Known about the structure:
The protein has 148 residues and is an alpha+beta fold. Helix content is 43%, strand content 20%. The longest helix has 20 residues, at 116-135.
Amino acid sequence: MKKRICAGLLFPMLLLLLSGCSLHTEMKDGFYTAEMAEYSHGWKEYLCIFVKNDKIVYAEFNAKDPSGYIKAWDNAYMNNMYSVSGTYPNEYTREYVAQLIETQDPDAINAVSGASSSGSNFDKLSRAVVEQAKNGDSTIAIVEPPKE
């Protein structure tokens, strides 16, 4: 009985290996972007990546206001946030991007203390943009905000 169970489990795995199938879907070379569907507190976060040879080699995570002004450039916002949270957009956006480039895996990103809302958005954006890269779809992915 045990031999039949083992054979039943090993046979599909052997077929998968022999067929050359892979559980990993390669990302296509190019630029891919995902952005939040809505502005939050006047800002809309986005993530843009550049993929080369199935690797994310560049990424930009930030937020923009309706006029296109970038959140990381807003020194007043930076000073206010830093005094309350201990971090600010130019710092935590770079940290999230560095983790994504290093791990190549949206599931392996650790939250940055003081930037939990942006961390939740980065999680959703990174999953969406990697999916776009796997499909070779260069249209902007629109991401709904996390449910509160």
